[in-house]
Every structure is written in C-alpha cells, then in structure tokens.
Design brief:
The chain has 617 residues and is an alpha/beta fold. α2 packs antiparallel against α6, α21 packs antiparallel against α23 and α28 packs parallel to α29.
C-alpha cells in the first residue's frame, strides 16, 4: 500500500540542499509512495493541506465551479479567521453549503484537528548545526504530531547524530545516528542501502527556498577522515574512512531524470588520504569535469515536461512549469505577450493553485517552441568541481596537485587551522600554484586555542602570497563553536581562552564589511585588518561603530578615540580594556570613572545604528 511521506528541513538558512532527505525521497518514491518535501513554517503547510482538502470536498459537491482559483483568499481566511474575508468571496456568499463547509474547515483547523487526524504514514526530519537547536527541536515536536504512528518518525542528520540524548530528551524521539548505510534501515528486509541511492533533485522544486549552492551534482567519493582533530565532528559523524565511492552512475541517473547539472560539489572530508585518489580524479574527468570544461545550460522546460509525462513528482514540476511560463512572458515581444497570457488563462495556468498536469501537457506544443527560442540564446558556461570541505595541506605534493589540475577545480580549498601549520600551508599553496592551480580558498578556524594576532598573521600571509604568486586566495575565517558543550551548543556565545567578546565582535565586524572573506589586494587587507600587528590591535580595540563605518569616521571620531585611547597611562588603559573586553556598554556608568577614562568610553556608547545616520564634519 502506498504511503504518504513527509520530509522536512527546519526553516533555517543553509547553503546546501539536504542530501539525506534527497536520498530518502528516492527510496520512498521508488517504493511507490507519495513523497512531499517541505522547508518553511509547518503551520503554513498544515493550513495549505486543510485548504486543499476543503477545495477537493467542494469540487466533489459542485464540479462546475473552479474552486481552486479561490485558494489564496481561503488561505487568508484560514490565517486570520475573519468571516468578513469569507463574505467577500462571491461564490461563498451565494452558496450557503460552501459557506458552512468553509466555516467548519476553518474551525477544525483552529482546533488543530490536523494533530488529531494525522495524514502522514512516515515523517523524516533532517538536522544541521547545533546552534540551530531551538528551531530544530520546535520543528521536530510539530512534525512528529503529523505522523500516524510515532514509530515512523525519523530524525537524522548532523545535530541528531552529535546530540542524540538531548534530542530525545526534548522530543521523545530517538534519533537515527550516523548514516543510512545498512539494508533494512527503514523497512525490514529491504535490501537497498539508502546512503548509496541517487539524489532526488526534484524535491528542490517543491519549495520557495533557493539554496545558494545549486545547479550542481552533490555527492561523496570518500567518507570520513584519517585525522581526529579536537574541534571536528567528522570522527563522530563518519567514524570509518572509506577510500572510494563511485559517483559516475549517480551522475548518469541524475542527468537522465533531472537534466545535466553544471557543477560538481563533493563533500569529502579528506580526499587526498584516499588510496584511490587517481581513480577518483579519472572518474571525475570521465563525468565531464576536465580542465576548462564548459556546459550548455540544460533546457529546463523539456526536463519538467518529460517528468510530468512520466508522472514523476507532479507537484514539483507543475510549480516549475508555472515559473517557466513567467520567464517566457518576460522575454516575449510585447505584441505576443497578450496571446500567451490568454493561452495560460484559458487553461487555468496562471497560478500553481489552479494549474494541472493535464493542462500543462495540453499546451506543450505551443509553449515548447517559445522556450526553445529562449534557450537557443544560452551560451556554454564554465564548469567547476569543488571539494567543498577542503583538502589536507599536510598531504599535498606535486604528484597529487598535478593530477588535481586535470579537472576544473575552482577553488582549491585548503584548511589553515592554526599558525603552527604556516610552513605546511605555505608549501601546499606554492605546490598548487606551481602545478597550475591558481584559484584557491581556505577556511581559517579562530577562537579555538589560537591567539587573535595569529588570525591576522594567517590572513596577511595569504594576501602576500596572492601578490607574490599572482594567485587568488580567498580566506574564510570561521569562528569555533563547541558542538558537545551544553552551555554553548544552542548559541554562538563561546569565547576562546585567548579571545574576548570585543575581539570576536571586532573580527566579525570587519568580516561583515568584506562579506565574510578576505581576497586579493594587500592595500585592501591593510585597510581592513591593519598594515602591521600594532594596527591590527588598534582595530580590535576600536569601537564597533567605527570599524563598520571606517571610511566615515577614520579622519574624525575614530582618530579622536585612538588618540585618547593610546594616551591613557598603563593602569587606566588596563581598566578600560577590562571594561571594553565585555563588549557591553549600555549599562556602563561613566560617573564612576575619571575624565580620562570617560573621554575614551564615551566613544563606545555610539551604536552602529546611531552611527549610520550621524552627520560628521
């Protein structure tokens, strides 16, 4: 018997789509089940489902009315509960039966009947970082009540695997820890290994959220890592290192069903540790990701139409076609827009609320040539492969970098976790550039066991290497966040031994202005973080408003602050630093201090909001 399956990602912002849920979607869809993916406010989902049920009931009673064109008005009525909104819909005000049915359906929604009569046979919820703990727990506690049987609620993913006891304590659900890498993980006796299944990219078309990383194949070619770094979760999430996981078949399946993707994003944690490294690179090349490879954008309309013909996730591809219609409308000459609009209106295809698979297929002969003309102007775009988790600088050598240069790697990500690995990191960068890889990026862990000036040294080294080697190296400083400490896993408040709140905020303030990364240009780096260590420390102690609006204040208030700050005698300077280190100024009582200290502290009372609108001579 077909199951109704709900797959949920909590409503947090994230860059990458949920690969675990995409594999589950394949598993259930191949089993003949009805699969729905949702990311957003679950209250909106249950409201829409209840309204859809009402519209279906109304259609059964009176099939002559196009009830679905009133869906948005009914959603507003369900959301606000004002009868005046229902009265404004003419078809309801003239039909007492429909009117009473709508009132009853809204009352049942208000009384949360969707919890009393759950509609899903299986609910799967993914989890991500521990600092999303609150929103994730709320999502689990809501979603679990939408399942008919609590035994069929599965919670998995990173946070669930790292904090299973805490998740159970908060939700009553025992999470699935680790990977779905054994037969029968969901259905006893089923031989399929879910973790090895191809991804169902169609579920990404079901939601409004657009992942920043898109138009790419996602996958792994190895699992785990040979290192056991103290700050890293990989040993817990992927305890066994696996040298090789083939990806060619998955790419072929995805291409045949969802169209060719431009890029390849691999989430391997230590690709260079693999004994099958050369085989992996050769397989990547065979999949079309050779050096300087390009790809002609796929005809998205033909992908959508073929999947509708195959009855493959109609919900997703009806939405996709409506989106494509809007794209066509914008690009049509004005004289043809009216005809196209009339075509869509005649077939109730102006909105996903009224659109149907049959209607879309019915007008395909008219729409297909219109989209083909748009697609004909598309030009090939450069492909990239990205080992997104980074590669191990300690394992880089001329041989593996020469091999890496055979694929369209961009960027090559190399971790630079602490200043102690300076020589290893620098040698790795020089080796990569020497072998033709000049677009690089790195992750820089800070606020762990490092000193603030060591972050400065690392960023400065990158800026200098860019100049010397004529390379592009983008640094992404990443603040350390404990994943097991209960005092911190729900927030980002952890402060490392050698850091304080002010230093963390100062670093983040600079990075906000650089959009989180440091790229080419020594002058730019010097301006952002200082031309030497002394200037770096000045920026670290500088009032946050002056850091954010540097150009606005550098020749006036920031200069006055710096003069007053550096003129303080040692004992007063230490007292000021002690106050500033806490980075909380709204409750500071200036009357407790002498004039010299007040003259400095007054600058910290200028908030970033007030600074934005300040007029400065």
């Amino acid at each position: 018997m077909s199951r109704k399956v709900l797959l949920v990602e909590p409503n947090y912002k994230n860059k990458y789509p949920p690969m675990g849920l995409m594999k589950l979607a394949t598993y259930f869809r191949d089993s003949g089940d009805d699969v729905r993916f949702f990311k957003g406010n679950l209250q909106d989902l249950v409201m829409e489902l209840d309204v859809d049920d009402l519209l279906d009931d109304l259609a059964r009673i009176n099939s002559e009315v196009k009830w679905r064109k009133y869906k948005q008005e009914l959603l507003k009525y369900f959301r606000l509960g004002r009868l005046s909104l229902l009265d404004e819909i003419e078809v309801f005000s003239n039909d007492i039966i429909a009117y009473e049915m709508a009132k009853t359906a809204r009352r049942n929604y208000k009384n949360k009947d969707y919890f009393e009569n759950p509609r899903f046979d299986f609910v799967g919820i993914t989890t991500l970082f521990t600092f999303y703990f609150g929103i994730t727990i709320d999502t689990i506690n809501f979603a679990k009540k939408l399942c008919k049987d609590p035994k069929n609620v599965m919670v998995g993913g990173i946070m669930a695997s790292l904090l299973p006891d805490k998740v159970f304590e908060e939700t009553g659900i025992h999470p699935f820890v680790g990977q779905l890498d054994k037969p029968g993980d969901i259905d006893a006796g089923d031989p399929r290994i879910i973790d090895a299944l191809p991804l169902d990219y169609s579920i990404l078309e079901e939601i409004d959220y657009t992942y920043p990383a898109n138009n790419a194949y996602f996958g792994y070619m190895t699992r785990g890592c040979i290192n056991k770094c103290a700050f890293c979760a990989v040993p817990t999430l992927e305890p066994q290192y696996r040298d090789y996981i083939g990806i060619r078949e998955q790419i072929e399946i995805a291409t045949n069903r969802f169209g060719e993707q431009r890029d390849l994003l691999l989430l391997d944690n230590n690709i260079l540790a693999s004994k099958c490294y050369d085989q992996i690179i050769d397989e990547i090349k065979a999949c079309g990701f050779t050096q300087n490879a390009k790809q002609l954008p796929v005809n998205q309309y033909q992908v959508a139409i073929q999947n509708l013909r195959d009855n493959y996730n109609n919900r997703a591809y009806i939405r996709k076609c409506i989106s494509i219609y809007k794209e066509i409308m914008k690009k049509l000459p004005a004289k043809l827009q009216g005809d196209f609009y009339l075509l869509l209106e005649t077939h109730d295809l102006l909105s996903i609320d009224t659109a149907t698979r049959d209607a879309i297929l019915e007008i395909d002969e008219q729409v297909s040539p219109l989209y083909d003309k748009i697609h004909a102007s598309a030009r090939p775009k450069k492909r990239i492969i990205d080992f997104n988790q980074g590669i191990d600088a300690r394992l880089i050598n001329d041989q593996n970098m020469k091999k890496m240069a055979e694929v369209c790697i961009n960027p090559l990500r190399i971790a630079f976790d602490h200043w102690g690995m300076r020589d290893t990191y620098e040698n790795a960068v020089r080796c990569a550039v020497r072998n033709g890889i000049k677009d690089l990026s790195n992750y820089m862990l800070y606020n762990f066991n490092d000193h603030p000036e060591e972050l400065y040294y690392r960023m400065k080294l990158n800026a200098e290497l860019c100049e010397e080697l004529d390379a592009s190296i983008y640094s992404f400083p990443m603040k350390y966040h404990p994943i097991f400490d209960e005092d911190y896993f729900m927030n980002r408040d952890f402060i490392g031994t050698h850091w304080n709140k002010k230093f963390v905020r100062a670093a983040q303030a600079v990075l906000n202005s650089t959009k989180g990364c440091i790229g080419r240009g020594l002058e730019f780096f010097y301006e952002a973080f200082g031309s030497d260590e002394d200037r770096f420390w000045t920026i670290m102690w500088m009032p946050e408003a002056f850091i954010i609006y540097r150009m606005k204040f550098k020749d006036n208030l920031a200069k006055k602050w710096e003069e007053a700050f550096k003129a303080l005698p040692e004992d007063k300077l230490e007292l000021v630093k002690e106050i500033v280190a806490n980075n909380t100024f709204k409750d500071v009582d200036l009357s407790k201090y002498d004039q010299d200290i007040r003259d400095v502290l007054q600058f910290y009372l200028i908030t970033r909001d007030t600074a934005k609108d300040m007029a400065v001579d």
